[in-house]
């Protein structure tokens, strides 16, 4: 019906006589009387419609949806009218709109080109040649999940799945036979709550063997020593459609992995896990909202955790904090809504960290970076007011007696970071006339440093318009080079292993979780690019440490190759008390079923034997209890 | 044409005058002198006491008399006569609305059964009333009339109505395609005798002359005996530019059977036995038999082998046939229980736009026509594309060698794709000949070109259409090809003649697509007027007229046994026709956008379709055949049931963003689909 009405509007539409006059003037005929103009308008409207109707035929045969200028030309030619030359365009031509003086005007923007410039400019690249690519659209009626095919479940479907478990069966297309519940239970339930409560169907998340293998391959590659494989795996995570079924596993993997590696202070693995998060966020086919409760604490931990590496004074854990902060900023942009208030809650967490007297400087650094990535509004209202306090703290550390070299480095980094995030904001806020004194009055000891930073910012932004964006992308140093983390690649072994002492460990992200629970601060909605912060080209972390790290296990020199040996897929029923998995997925009340991939068989470097130094271990299991089980299995076999 | 020489004039002029005033036909003869006409005008003016005008006219006329008249006498003469005609029925325009509402209330008052049938006449009556008003220059009345009633017309006529709405002036009528069609032909309506009698009685009782005129002049009512049709039945077959097809149009016998295959069984057996060994023949014999039986038995519906002269079969063709049989033996089943396997070929980086894709019969070659006038041929097998050696090199070849064909080819030129340039407009179709030696293509530039796939050059350029050529197709037996185009003709060419050997015309608008019948005796054409016609190549007659599409027809496909024809187009509904009876068998609804490609599986049990909605759909033809009511009398439209159940869809497979321009079944029944990757995804909208 709507369409019909729409059509009705078009019927009888006409060019106004004024247009005709304007057109006539443009070809040098002026002073057309109104009558003549209206007659001409009527007739030309008719002719125009005829031509467009004719052109539609060419569009149909061109197998397109959109009428192009070429179609009009062809229609003119078919009617023996000289076509209009010079109006070829492959793209749609946007009409610009301008109004003023009570008149409205639509026009096509035509830029003037400097011919000299075109002649002198380098030739554009030759477009890639036409090629034919074959893929299987379906094999015996089943569509394979490959990037060439549409994702098996669209984001909308994945969203619906949350609300309605019946959707799931539709997505999977092969409805699994529902497990027959034990008769006792049914009886029991029916006695108590007969028809009153509608029991929601349990949706089972069984993975096919292929998916299990894929999961294993990907997780191993992502945290393994082979950089080439890792980038392949990350690429797959970022682009493959149809990962949604494995997403719960991946999110658990990441969140558990972060928990454990924070405790172990294993910087490299934390970085790898964050890169996984980034890839998953880059994947356009995934509906991540369901798993934010796992991703956000994990990412937050990597931002504000007190300690992320073994030797904070040497290792560059700042880059990890920066990277995670960018991820967090992106998450807030992508997922923050008025109902979940993510941005507000995260902001509050960070602000608390900054205000806290006891918080470590590293934590404060992370909080600053986290706030800095949220955009200028957040910086203005949450970071700026605290600059003075931070300044004092930094000053005490820097000028006081040297207690801890790590603190000193942290203080330096905080200064750099503040300069980086604040200068673009201050540039907009303060006039160029503001003197050092003004700055010192407002920001205390950091005033002079900020003043110079803003000055530099002004200068450089004069040269390049998009400098701001570049700065926002994050470079603390003047050279505007990426922060690099350095850890020895071949040694970077992964431990995802729950230490029994997890409760006492200093780095547990307690405050993170606490913060998220408190909503309240108004969320600031920001426009921005929807994608995760991606740098031109692949983000690279060069990892190296001082060579002095002792290898206390002979086996640790040899990287535990993920592909060597026969990998086994072990299904483990976790007997863990829930308390040990602080942020475990809210599962069905029954014992969670978790698929854990064990690695090479016959590897003896298990945690117990490694003398407590789990640094050198390969990835084992997410849960420490199971390690022993696996070990036994291995020994038995 | 002869019957409707006075279509729109309600003139009460003298008989002599009426005959000259052939409105729209624009061929009035100046045998009545100018003065006479003028006198008539002046008389009229005087009678109506319009003195000012009279004087003005007198003055003007005298001036005209002096210089302008000699050239434009005939033109102005008719104009004036029609002006008079309009004046004469001065009250008409407002009356039309009354007539129309009267007719409507009458139809409303009828029994439900008749109501449905009778309401069909409202649309043509509406159109002709509107045109009459426009012709008589009652523009404002016409627009009002249009506004008031156009929305009540069927949805599928809205497109035409939109076009019609642009016509608001008499001057517009000249040269308007749609107008010409309405003027030149009658709108066909099928009606049961009862309903017809109702209508007749009503018209006689009420004596509404203009209405009666319109119905007599512009409507053809095809009366049949039997119960009235239901709304669904009517809607299924109506929708064409001029209503439905007459029953008489589909009476001629059509030889839809396949041609008797020449005896190549002998070499087949000889070839088969030696390499296959002992165990195979036993297995193969029973399988082979049905294939061979069909060909060897004399099909009563098949045309004589020499009905159309066909080229002699060469040794190579026989070899080809043998391999085709062999492959056919390994054919897999495709159907509801055996879902297909589809291989999709995506044309990448086609910035200039792909306008057509076709596959060779043996599935080894794929060609794509582009909007930048080029054609590319790709190989889909491991055999690279090679061109022939130069003449000098060819001279050195031993002509008696067994592998002379192989030696002819130049290995240095082997590539995966070849580019053919020559056209000067978008290439709207390119098709392979069955033997893969030739390619024929057509383009916006009005030419059809024949290309050699041995030398990869243009051999012949056939000029004749002069307007964009929309589609072209090779005969399954080679030698002939047919092209259709914007000029509303289909032309049959023989590769060795530079002029067409047959020209088929009859469609009221562009012919959009064409297909050869598998026995090469007929061609089917689909048109923008929403009719499909089947033409006999032997005598050039139109032997079938199918109506039922609600949008221009863009794709046709004959079933492998030649009995059925599938069609689809802009209306995105796939229709299945029985050529023997000319009846519509099934409507397959499911696509959401224009369907550009149709293909039957090699065994004819399944029909595949694909189009702009980025999906490939599979339809169950066997089910249609099972459910068809064989007892129904096809001569009575109301007893024919059209199968439009949703259960006909076997499956649907979506591509990511690639429209499907070509669907093909290999000899082994593997499905191949192809289309250009959409660019819109990659390109960001204009922001920077």
TrEMBL record, chain A:
SMART domains: TAF. It holds the Pfam family TAF. Keywords: Initiation factor, Nucleus, Protein biosynthesis, Transcription, Transcription regulation. GO terms for biological process: RNA polymerase II preinitiation complex assembly. Residues 13-77 form the TATA box binding protein associated factor (TAF) histone-like fold domain. One of its GO terms (cellular component) is transcription factor TFIID complex. The keyword Glycoprotein does not apply. Residues 475-485 have a biased composition (Polar residues). Residues 458-485 are annotated as: Disordered. The keyword Nucleus applies. GO terms for molecular function: protein heterodimerization activity; RNA polymerase II general transcription initiation factor activity; transcription coactivator activity; translation initiation factor activity. Its main location: nucleus. The nucleosome is a histone octamer containing two molecules each of H2A, H2B, H3 and H4 assembled in one H3-H4 heterotetramer and two H2A-H2B heterodimers. The octamer wraps approximately 147 bp of DNA. Belongs to the TAF6 family. This is Histone H4. The lineage of its organism: Eukaryota, Metazoa, Spiralia, Lophotrochozoa, Mollusca.
UniProtKB/TrEMBL annotation, chain B:
GO terms for cellular component: transcription factor TFIID complex. WD repeats lie at residues 420-453, 462-493, 504-545, 546-587, 588-621. Residues 288-300 have a biased composition (Basic and acidic residues). It comes from the Eukaryota. Keywords: Nucleus, Repeat, Transcription, Transcription regulation, WD repeat. GO terms for biological process: transcription initiation at RNA polymerase II promoter. It is found in: Nucleus. Residues 265-308 are annotated as: Disordered. GO terms for molecular function: RNA polymerase II general transcription initiation factor activity. Gene3D superfamilies: TFIID subunit TAF5, NTD2 domain, YVTN repeat-like/Quinoprotein amine dehydrogenase. Its main location: nucleus. Residues 91-219 form the TFIID subunit TAF5 NTD2 domain. SUPFAM superfamilies: Taf5 N-terminal domain-like, WD40 repeat-like. Pfam families: TFIID_NTD2, WD40. Belongs to the WD repeat TAF5 family. This is Transcription initiation factor TFIID subunit 5.
């Amino acid at each position: 019906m709507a369409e019909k009405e729409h059509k009705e509007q078009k019927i009888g539409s006409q060019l106004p006589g004024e247009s005709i006059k304007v057109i006539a003037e443009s070809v040098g005929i002026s002073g057309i009387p109104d009558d003549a103009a209206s007659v001409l308008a009527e007739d030309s409207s008719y002719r125009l419609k005829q031509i467009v109707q004719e052109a539609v035929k060419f569009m149909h045969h061109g197998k397109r949806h959109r009428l192009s200028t070429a179609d009009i030309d062809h229609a003119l030619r078919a009617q023996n009218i000289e076509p209009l030359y010079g109006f070829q365009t492959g793209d749609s031509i946007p009409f610009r709109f301008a109004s003023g003086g009570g008149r409205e005007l639509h026009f096509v923007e035509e830029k003037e080109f400097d011919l000299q410039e075109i002649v002198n400019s380098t030739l554009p690249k030759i477009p890639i040649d036409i090629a034919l690519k074959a893929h299987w659209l379906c094999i015996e009626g089943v569509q394979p999940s490959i990037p060439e095919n549409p994702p098996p479940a669209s984001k909308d479907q994945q969203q619906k799945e949350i609300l309605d478990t019946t959707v799931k069966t539709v997505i999977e297309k092969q409805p699994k036979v529902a497990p027959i519940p034990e008769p006792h239970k049914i009886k029991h339930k029916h006695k108590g709550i007969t028809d009153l409560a509608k029991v929601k169907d349990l949706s089972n998340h069984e993975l096919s063997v292929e998916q299990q293998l894929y999961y294993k391959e990907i997780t191993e590659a992502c945290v393994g020593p082979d950089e080439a494989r890792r980038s392949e795996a990350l690429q797959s995570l970022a682009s493959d459609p149809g990962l949604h079924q494995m997403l719960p596993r991946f999110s658990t993997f990441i969140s558990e992995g972060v928990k454990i590696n924070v405790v172990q202070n294993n910087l490299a693995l934390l970085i790898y896990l964050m890169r996984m998060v980034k890839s998953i966020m880059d994947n356009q086919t995934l509906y991540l909202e369901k798993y934010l409760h796992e991703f956000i604490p994990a990412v937050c931990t990597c931002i504000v955790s007190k300690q992320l590496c073994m030797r904070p004074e040497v290792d560059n854990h700042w880059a990890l904090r920066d990277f995670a902060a960018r991820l967090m900023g992106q998450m807030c942009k992508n997922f923050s809504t008025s109902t979940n208030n993510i941005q507000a809650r995260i902001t509050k967490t960070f602000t608390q960290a900054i205000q806290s007297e006891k918080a470590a400087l590293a934590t404060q650094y992370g909080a600053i970076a986290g706030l800095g990535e949220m955009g200028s509004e957040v910086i203005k209202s949450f970071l700026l007011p605290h600059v003075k306090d931070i300044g004092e703290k930094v000053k005490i550390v820097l000028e006081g007696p040297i207690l801890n070299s790590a603190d000193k480095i942290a203080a330096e980094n905080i200064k750099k970071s503040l300069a980086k995030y604040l200068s673009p904001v201050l540039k907009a806020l303060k006039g160029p006339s503001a003197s050092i004194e003004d700055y010192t009055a407002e920001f205390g000891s950091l005033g002079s440093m900020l003043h110079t930073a803003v000055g530099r910012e002004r200068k450089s932004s004069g040269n390049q318009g998009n400098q701001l964006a570049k700065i926002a992308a994050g470079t603390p140093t003047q050279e505007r080079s990426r922060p690099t983390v350095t850890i020895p690649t071949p040694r970077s072994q992964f431990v995802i292993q729950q230490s029994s002492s997890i409760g006492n460990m200093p780095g547990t992200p307690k405050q993170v979780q606490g913060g998220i629970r408190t909503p309240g601060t108004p969320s600031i909605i920001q426009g921005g690019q929807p994608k995760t912060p991606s740098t031109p080209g692949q983000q690279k972390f060069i990892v190296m440490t001082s060579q002095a790290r002792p290898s206390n296990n002979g086996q640790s020199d040899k990287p535990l190759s993920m592909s060597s040996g026969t990998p086994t897929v072990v299904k483990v029923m976790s007997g863990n008390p829930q308390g040990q998995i602080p942020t475990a997925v809210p599962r069905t009340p029954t014992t969670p079923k978790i698929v854990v991939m064990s690695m090479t068989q016959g590897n003896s470097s298990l945690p117990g034997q490694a003398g407590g130094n789990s640094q050198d271990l390969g990835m084992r299991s997410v849960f420490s209890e199971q390690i022993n089980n696996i070990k036994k299995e291995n020994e038995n076999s | 044409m002869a019957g409707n020489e006075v279509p729109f004039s309600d003139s009460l002029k003298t008989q002599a005058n009426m005959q000259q005033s052939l409105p729209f036909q624009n061929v009035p003869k100046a045998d009545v002198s100018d003065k006479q006409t003028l006198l008539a005008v002046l008389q009229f003016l005087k009678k109506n006491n319009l003195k000012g005008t009279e004087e003005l006219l007198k003055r003007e006329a005298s001036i005209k008399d002096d210089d302008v008249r000699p050239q434009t006498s005939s033109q102005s003469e008719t104009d004036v006569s029609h002006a008079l005609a309009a004046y004469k029925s001065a009250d008409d325009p407002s009356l039309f609305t009354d007539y129309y509402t009267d007719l409507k209330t009458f139809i409303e008052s009828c029994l439900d059964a008749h109501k449905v049938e009778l309401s069909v006449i409202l649309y043509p009556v509406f159109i002709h009333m509107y045109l009459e008003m426009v012709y008589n220059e009652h523009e404002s009345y016409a627009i009002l009339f249009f506004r008031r009633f156009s929305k009540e017309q069927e949805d599928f006529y809205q497109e035409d109505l939109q076009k019609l709405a642009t016509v608001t002036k008499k001057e517009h009528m000249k040269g308007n395609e749609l107008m010409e069609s309405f003027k030149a032909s009658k709108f066909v309506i099928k009606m049961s005798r009862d309903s017809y009698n109702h209508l007749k009685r009503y018209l006689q009782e009420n004596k509404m002359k203009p209405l009666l005129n319109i119905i007599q002049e512009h409507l053809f009512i095809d009366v049949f005996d039997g119960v009235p049709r239901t709304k669904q039945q009517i809607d299924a077959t109506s929708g064409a530019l001029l209503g439905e097809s007459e029953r008489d149009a589909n009476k001629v016998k059509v030889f839809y059977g396949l041609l008797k295959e020449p005896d190549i069984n002998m070499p087949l057996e000889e070839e088969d036995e030696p390499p296959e060994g002992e165990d195979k023949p036993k297995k193969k014999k029973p399988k082979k038999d049905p294939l061979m039986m069909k060909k060897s038995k004399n099909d009563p519906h098949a045309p004589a082998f020499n009905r159309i002269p066909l080229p002699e079969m060469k040794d190579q063709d026989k070899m080809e046939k043998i391999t085709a049989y062999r492959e056919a033996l390994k054919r897999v089943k495709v159907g509801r229980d055996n879902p297909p396997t589809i291989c999709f070929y995506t044309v990448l980086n086609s910035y200039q736009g792909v306008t057509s894709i076709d596959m060779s019969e043996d599935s080894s070659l794929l060609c794509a026509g582009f909007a930048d006038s080029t054609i590319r041929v790709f190989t889909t097998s491991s055999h690279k594309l090679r061109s022939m050696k130069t003449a000098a090199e060819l001279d050195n070849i031993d002509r008696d060698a067994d592998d002379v064909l192989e030696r002819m080819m130049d290995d240095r030129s082997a590539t995966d794709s070849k580019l053919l340039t020559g056209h000067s407009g978008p290439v709207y179709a390119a098709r392979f000949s069955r033997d893969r030696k030739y390619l024929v293509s057509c383009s916006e530039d009005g030419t059809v070109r024949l290309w050699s796939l041995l030398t990869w050059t243009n051999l012949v350029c056939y000029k004749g259409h002069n307007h964009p050529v929309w589609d072209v197709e090779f005969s399954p037996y080679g030698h002939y090809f047919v092209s259709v185009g914007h000029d509303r003709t289909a032309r049959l060419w023989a590769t060795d003649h530079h002029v067409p050997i047959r020209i088929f015309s009859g469609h009221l608008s562009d012919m959009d697509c064409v297909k050869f019948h598998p026995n090469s005796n007929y061609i089917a054409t689909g048109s923008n007027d929403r009719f499909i016609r089947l033409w006999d190549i032997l005598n050039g007659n139109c032997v079938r007229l199918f109506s039922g599409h609600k949008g221009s027809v863009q794709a046709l496909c004959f079933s492998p046994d030649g009995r059925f024809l599938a069609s689809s187009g802009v209306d995105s509904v796939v229709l299945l026709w029985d050529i023997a009876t000319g009846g519509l068998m099934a409507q397959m609804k499911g696509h959401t956008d224009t369907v550009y490609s149709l293909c039957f599986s090699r065994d004819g049990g399944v029909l595949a379709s694909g189009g702009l909605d980025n999906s490939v759909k599979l339809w169950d033809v066997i089910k249609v055949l099972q459910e068809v009511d064989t007892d129904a009398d096809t001569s009575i439209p109301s007893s024919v049931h059209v199968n439009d159940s949703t259960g006909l869809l076997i499956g649907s497979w979506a591509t990511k963003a690639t429209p499907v321009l070509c669907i093909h079944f290999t000899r082994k029944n593997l499905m191949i689909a192809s289309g250009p990757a959409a660019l819109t995804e990659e390109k960001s909208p204009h922001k920077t």
